[in-house]
Specification:
The structure is a single chain. By secondary structure, the protein is α+β, with helices and mostly antiparallel strands. The protein has one domain: Aspartate Aminotransferase, domain 1, CATH 3.90.1150. 35% of the residues lie in helices and 23% in strands. It has a 7-stranded antiparallel β-sheet. A two-stranded antiparallel sheet has the order 4-5. The radius of gyration is 15 Å and the shape is globular.
Length: 142
Amino acid sequence: MYELKTKENDSSVIEFIEKVEKPKKKEDAYRLLDLFTETSGYSAKMWGTSIIGFGSYHYKYPTGHEGDAPLVGFSPRKANFSLYFATGQERDDMLERLGKHKSGKACVYINKLDDVDAEVLKEMITSSINYLQSMYPEQKEE
């Protein structure tokens, strides 16, 4: 049986951010921490060794695969920031207004927070949470 590597744990979010080497990236990580916390209404938790997640949901696919994941999150990677949002939701309009970024299926990649519109980022956080809570209505309580 497949076991998820990225699980919520009790590691310190602050200790993780403090290990970010570049001062500007560390500053942006703290700004993202505040923005995600205020917008989501959830406390930050470490997921695996490198993802800062907010809230959680339990998913179960038709294949029987199931697990828990953060509603939204981010990670200060060496090359850029990975921002984690729901897959499957329509977000083209928000991405067009976000600013300088690259995007994948679930992730949005930004180099620095100043490259994007914080209000659009807040909109994306709220939209992702609302989408996942409607898709998976039985949420774990924080």
